[in-house]
Amino acid sequence: MLVGMNIKGPIATIGAVAVVGTGLFLLNVSRQPESTASGNPPAATSTAPAPTGTAAVSPVPAAPPTTPTTPAPRPFADREDFVADIPTKTGNIALEIRVDGAKARAYACDNKGIETWMWGTAENGVLKLTDQAKTSELNGTHQGNTVVGNLRINDKNWDFTAVPGATSVF
Hints:
- The longest helix has 24 residues, at 8-31.
- The protein is mostly beta strands and 170 residues long.
- It is elongated and about 105 Å long.
- It has an eight-stranded antiparallel barrel with strand order 1-2-3-4-5-6-7-8.
- It has a domain at 79-164: Lipocalin (Beta Barrel), CATH 2.40.128.
- Helices cover 14% and strands 39% of the residues.
- It is built from one helix and eight strands.
- A hairpin with a 5-residue loop joins strand 3 and strand 4.
- The chain crosses the membrane at residues 12-29.
- Keywords: Membrane, Transmembrane, Transmembrane helix.
- Residues 32-77 are annotated as: Disordered.
């Protein structure tokens, strides 16, 4: 049997492996960056001095992010009409918009269940219209000779570009 076997060697090896493993684990955990509440990593900081005898090189600042430039909305004339056909999964929504001075109204219909009238403002080239129940909303900007915007009816949204055209419902 193994009664006479010396077990001090294997126990010492297991203990040494446990100590080294724990040390490596703690070193790894201490070197990980701390997470912030916002989820953004902290900014890197350097505390090492520049080597002597060499010129310190300053980092090149990163270029600012480019943002797409959208033309500023153009104010509306005293009276303008715009029309658009907005494609949907089941067909098209006909959209008609009339601007009268600082007020605007719109009608959207697909002849399959969607029909809404909206009223609101047309100031500085920006349209903000809603229906009476606040379940439909039209937001748009006057760009060039078109109105570019978004139509929301209940929980569905469609982007559109309306062009000048005769309206038949106003």
